[in-house]
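#struct-help
A.M.: can someone run this one for me? Single chain, 159 residues.
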Amino acid sequence: MAQSVYLKTLLKPTHLKLTFPTMNTLADLLAQTPPSEEDKRFVDKSMQLSGLIAAAMRRKGLTQKALADQLGKKESEVSRWLSGLHNFTLKSLTRLEAVLGEDLVLTFRDQVATATLTAPAKVQWAEAADTWQPPVRSQQPQRRTVVSVEEPYSLTEAA
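D.P.: on it. Structure tokens below:
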């Protein structure tokens, strides 16, 4: 009997107080946890990208609905993209670029647009001698000779 009285008092609602964090407590908790470098980069790049999309839409005179229609998406999805925290796939970015008619994301290291890359050498070969002989054991065949190598080109010229 004493056991049942103990259980009844234990199970009274006054003893079972569940506390849930309030918005202030949750905000305080989040404020105490600093964002990682990865999170900072993601938010920064996402916000930049949404700004580029919005600017391209203005230049083309497109509304969210018009862009959504051209992409076969819902207007709410385009709105989410413009919020700045959508995680785009490369495929969706290239579709967006095609519809908007401009590059949103340049290739991986194009932030330094003036840098040039050395292309694989384009070689012009001299004609082989008219009387080519098979090589003697101590000699290498000299069928072709490099005449010139073209200068390096930039990424913008390659396209």
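A.M.: thanks! The beta strands are 116-117, 123-125, 146-149, 153-154.
D.P.: also worth noting: The longest helix spans residues 37-60.
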